[in-house]
Amino acid sequence: MDIENLETIVLAKYLFTLAKSNIRTENKFKRSMGMNLLQDSVETFLFAIAEHSQITLHSTRFDDNLRVIDEKVQLSVCNQLKALNKARVSSKHFATIPEEKECYHFMEFVEKFMDETSKKVFGKSIVSITLLDAIEKGELRDVLVEAENNHIKKKYRDCLINCRKALYLGIEWHYNIELSDSENPLSNLPVMMNFDKKQPGLLPFMMMLTPDNFKKNIESYIKDPSYYNSNSGDSCAVELLQYGIDNKEFWNICRLTPIVIRRKKSKEWVVKYEYKQLINIKKENVEYVLNSTIGIMLAIQGKKEATKKLENEQDYYLVLKKNRMTIHEKASKLGSDNGEIETDDKNVKSDFIIKGLDDEEYYWHINDARYPKGYLCERDINLEASAKLADIYK
Question: Are residue 336 and residue 287 in the same domain, yes or no?
Answer without folding.
Answer: no
